[in-house]
Amino acid sequence: MQVKNNLDNNSLMVNESLLSTSNGYFGVRGNFEEGYRNDYDTIRGTYINGFYETTDITYGEGAFGYPNTSQKIVNVIDGQTIKIYIDGELFNLFDGKVIDFKRKLDIEKGYSLRYIEWISKKGHHLKITIKRLASFTTLELFIIDYEVESVNYSGEIQIESTLNADVKNYSNKSDQRVASGHTKLLHVDKIDKNHGIATISSKTKISNLTIASSMNHNLNMEYTVKENSIIGMVKKNIKASEKISLIKYISFTDSIRHDDCFKESKNVVNVAMKNGEKYYFKDQEEYLNEFWKYSKINIDGEIEEEKAINYNIYQLLSSIGKVKNTNISAKGLSGEGYEGHYFWDTEIYMVPFFTLTNPQLAKRLLKFRYETLESAKIEAEKLGHKKGVKIPWRTISGSECSAYFLSGSAQYHINADVAYSYIQYYLATNDTEFLKEFGLEVLYKTALLWLDVGYFNNEGKFSIDAVTGPDEYTVMVNNNYYTNSLAKYHLKWVCKLSSILEKENISDWNRLKSKIAINENELTNMKNASEKMILLYSDELKINLQDDAFLKRKEWDLENTSEENYPLLLHYHPLYIYRYKVSKQADTILAHFLLDNETDIIMKNSYSYYEKITTHDSSLSPCIFSIMASRIKKIDKAYHYYKMTSKLDIENIKGNTKDGLHIANAGGVYMTIVYGFSGLRIKENGIHLSPIKPKEWTSYTFRINYKNSLVKVTISDKINIETEKEISLIIDKTKYLISGKRSLNYNNF
Amino acid sequence: MQVKNNLDNNSLMVNESLLSTSNGYFGVRGNFEEGYRNDYDTIRGTYINGFYETTDITYGEGAFGYPNTSQKIVNVIDGQTIKIYIDGELFNLFDGKVIDFKRKLDIEKGYSLRYIEWISKKGHHLKITIKRLASFTTLELFIIDYEVESVNYSGEIQIESTLNADVKNYSNKSDQRVASGHTKLLHVDKIDKNHGIATISSKTKISNLTIASSMNHNLNMEYTVKENSIIGMVKKNIKASEKISLIKYISFTDSIRHDDCFKESKNVVNVAMKNGEKYYFKDQEEYLNEFWKYSKINIDGEIEEEKAINYNIYQLLSSIGKVKNTNISAKGLSGEGYEGHYFWDTEIYMVPFFTLTNPQLAKRLLKFRYETLESAKIEAEKLGHKKGVKIPWRTISGSECSAYFLSGSAQYHINADVAYSYIQYYLATNDTEFLKEFGLEVLYKTALLWLDVGYFNNEGKFSIDAVTGPDEYTVMVNNNYYTNSLAKYHLKWVCKLSSILEKENISDWNRLKSKIAINENELTNMKNASEKMILLYSDELKINLQDDAFLKRKEWDLENTSEENYPLLLHYHPLYIYRYKVSKQADTILAHFLLDNETDIIMKNSYSYYEKITTHDSSLSPCIFSIMASRIKKIDKAYHYYKMTSKLDIENIKGNTKDGLHIANAGGVYMTIVYGFSGLRIKENGIHLSPIKPKEWTSYTFRINYKNSLVKVTISDKINIETEKEISLIIDKTKYLISGKRSLNYNNF
């Protein structure tokens, strides 16, 4: 992926996100090693997944049960800085003359590249090539391969390389969303430059976490401690046509995952120095070969789209936490937006990709909710519940960090979203071991909450009141269709899986029952609640209703709402928005996609109805509209909404890519192809397909890992399948058993 | 009113509120002149009505249109301190021996009294009598009459009297509601002790207001400036059986209402010194004679209740602002609770007393909303409205100060509450001049908002969605019965009054129309909206429904909710409470009281229904339940709820009287008698009565000022009326024209 390459401040900040190098454990934004011009703004950032500081929440008017603290991802020690001086002049893109300048992210080889051909004011001509690698195989390791080639200069070149712990989180006085305090989160604990390796550790004050970072170089450098940083310096002579190559090894180790992070940080760099950089670049490529084997999407007909799609997929891999207590934050590790919090985005928008291509990584995401069950129990109690757990709406460590309950804690659907992702994982993998060890406990305890939130009304129907669905433009509603239908599914599957496990091995089941404290009466209650769940439907419109008051609300004249008034939430009081029949994002139709639980005609009508009143002010929306347009065979619409997703960050469509990439949308891009165009669903009886194909493409191909079998699907004018093991495939209700390669005619496009 | 007189910290703090001396312009809490013991907590406070500092509001998660600033009543310069030293010992109640100790508020003479008989550790025996007067006739003047009588001591007595500007607002670290910052709000500007008078002025930083205060004494004192205070000192010789009398004159003048407040502050004290204290004590008594002529309530049968009722009435007089830009804050001038803000309490709970007894003062309250229309216009715009004004939920200067819109800005009913109070004023006074000058503009502009908030739904009914009614335990509901029924009344009366004024004088009307910019189409819309207003009714229960989802909500098991879990809002997350069919306070039945718009059977059923689910966690609730119990002739219930109101502060029933008196409840006490027991309503065709009488009372008497006629009503086994002018009286639908005295038999108790 090559990016647009302007040197204006805004483009540079967007590229900091787009060209960040992350491996899921840490992420480094794509800042220039030498920095920008002084008058430029920059978010010079390095983040560790799950590494946070605790911050206070203050309320104008607080109330019982509100969270008093939040968490914020910390901008940790900065290892990016490298400065070179030629004949006394600092190399930088804002002085002298830039002859050539390219930047790209190589998603096959797993590094970012910056190439500059440059003539200094004094006329010295250089070619500089910088590669950055965040190792997928040694998660603590960051490498900068910095090569200087002299075209016409002979003389001394001075190289300075810094490890800087004098760091702050980003704030911007002119933007009130990031203007607030909470910027200086790290405080230097130890600095050490003995034995030719530079190491600093820093601590957070309240969460009491430590991050350590070491650096060393292939060139012999002299290290000097200067306040809170260590600067390495070396002078070399260079001649015309000669190259000098600096390899900078930087490690990041944190106290959550490392016993003695200071020592381990040194160790990572020492080992890396011994192995040399080529070892890691090769490893990286091999790791990615294996990754792409299951993950690559090919588009025949629009090469730019293929690039964009796989760029987004690569960002999913770069964002996913691979060690304990990590997940995927809304912006991955590419920025500080949403303070590094994890949301339902994970389960509904990101897990699907991993479940279908890389179940091992999917398990990591799923386990996070298991690891944080204790906090979820506390949150349920704060919300007044006598049983069950409540998954926090936004969190890093597991405790609720939402300071606005109407579109935070009130989104109870997150309990069912988490459950949904466990169930989908089970369907794609058949992994009952995981169920027994982790899954069922999460499923059961999250399901218990429904019994306490909802109730059987006078007519014996199960009602869930005063919750907020995915659409944040109507809040605290009764019987939100999305929530109820997912809760119904959730409750049904807890019963179903219990019975599967019981049948599998009764004594195992009894042990499990007692471990989780599963109560038979509660299972019966769950069954009843699921069966009696209210799913709102309008006889008149033949659509499912978003909530019990939705139809009655005032109409918002979207056609005559001017462009600059979007997103509505930045231009209208919430109370005003809540009064209208207007949706921020897919809600009912998201349920239709996930559950495939209504007739075609209802889904079609619902799609048309909600499309008219949805602003897509959330980046979580267009991908779902694309998928459901595919589902109801509106190919042009499907392609239209797909187009809104694939380049959402690449073209900075939301205007805030500088704060980090929209990783849920990245997952959405994948889903528009696989769930959308191809119509894939994993159900109990096998893989379902019901493809369409955009007329712009001659064919498209994706792979999945289905029950340990690599399955390759190509949709052209036919459906071509390649599978390692025999699979059951249902195409528009016709069932096939397929082994090896098979080409099927298909006339239903 | 004599009060309980313990020297424990809690009782003292409660008495600070109960024995505060206020005149509506300023209020001084009933602190001891000499202070308490060092380990005691105290809210030593003096407040000026409408004198505030602007404070920041911070939100955990803000949104468009939220207020960024609030306002807070300022604890101003303290003039209370007087210390006397006998033989080197400071007189105080925590050393030596207290022989006798009484405190009371004399509501006929208008001062508070503290009497102590005390023997010092050294055995010196004194009698001390302290009277405090906040003058109703010279609003800026506060007098302390401090008399020391020696029983057995002969020797020197040293008197110190202080004017202290080193003041802060109250905070208490163990109570998070008052723990926050915003305590040091005043900064000394000028100090002057020339010409034998002590004067200090202080400023607020952000609202940029100045308060000046002067003091002087009948005794010649030497004044010393010490940091931010001026201390007067004098030594006198006293003999056994002799008295020394210190008269301390203190003035308060603020820059909102005074051109040169520093100078005017001196002036007030200089004039007072010339007149002498007796002049003001006499004036005070005369002022109160006139006041009680219209306001006194007599109870034959329970003298303590008579005292309690008239104590509450006196607090209404003490709290009401009598100059421009003032109103009545929720706690009057007796404490800092609710930060000195004005709420709907004024119009619905306090205006009625003034309208019925003192229309001149009622006009002051009504005019406040006129004076702040510009801010109300801005607030409407922030809430997204293209027309109309939105009365702020809580304010001092007129701008919205609510930091929690769900039970703040969302309470749109305040627009109709204000309108209601104007209409009631008109009915009781026939004052069309006031309507033309102020009233109609407020009525029309507040009514316009309904047309923008509500809408005609598909069935042509007028619907008002996403607002909060008086009951703050269900928020942001659709078609709240209270809101809709008051809006209906509001809209109807705008049309009606327009037509009355048009008929009265067409050219005046045209001038007025153009001044207010009244649009004929909007009047037609108002008429339609009023006629088509949705008023929810359950055929099954034969009650009015609080909102369109109310009946469907979960039941809260109030019977098994333990005492310590009340008020619910301090023990449950709001979201939990909102999910239940539980009311904080009277809502639907408040509308029934105000509008008398439903059949007896509906009102009866509604009363029974809502009584079961109401917690009365708001002090605004029991009085309304008492009134409606009277309305449906449940005498025992009426008396039961009346009892919850009359001593609510006197017996500190809510536990927070230390933070100030519940002035809306004080208005409620009056209403339980006049609207409740006697069943009085002022309608277009005259005064309606439908009395009941508690069996504990042999008779009760009240007076009103009806169209400039003093009308005295006594309910015993008969109805006795005395009126200055002929009035039209309707008793249970039978109409009488009454002049002079008349005794009517009545068998319907």
Describe the structure.
Chains A, B: Residues 680-717 form the Glycoside hydrolase family 65 C-terminal domain. Chains A, B: The active site is at 472 (proton donor). Chains A, B: It holds the Pfam family Glyco_hydro_65C. Chains A, B: Residues 5-254 form the Glycoside hydrolase family 65 N-terminal domain. Chains A, B: Residues 311-670 form the Glycoside hydrolase family 65 central catalytic domain. Two copies of one chain form a homodimer. Helix content of chain A is 33%, strand content 25%. The first copy, chain A, is an alpha+beta fold and 749 residues long. The two termini of chain A are 31 Å apart. In chain A, 54% of the residues are buried. The first copy, chain A, has a domain at 9-56 and 66-262: Glycoside hydrolase, family 65, N-terminal domain (Beta-galactosidase, Chain A, domain 5, Distorted Sandwich). In chain A, the strands form eight sheets. In chain A, strands 8-9-10-11-18-15-14-13 form an eight-stranded antiparallel beta sheet. At the A-B interface, helix 13 of A face helix 13 of B.
Produce a short descriptive summary.
The structure is a homodimer of 749-residue chains. Chain A is α+β, with helices and mostly antiparallel strands and 749 residues long. Chains A, B: One of its GO terms (molecular function) is hydrolase activity, hydrolyzing O-glycosyl compounds.
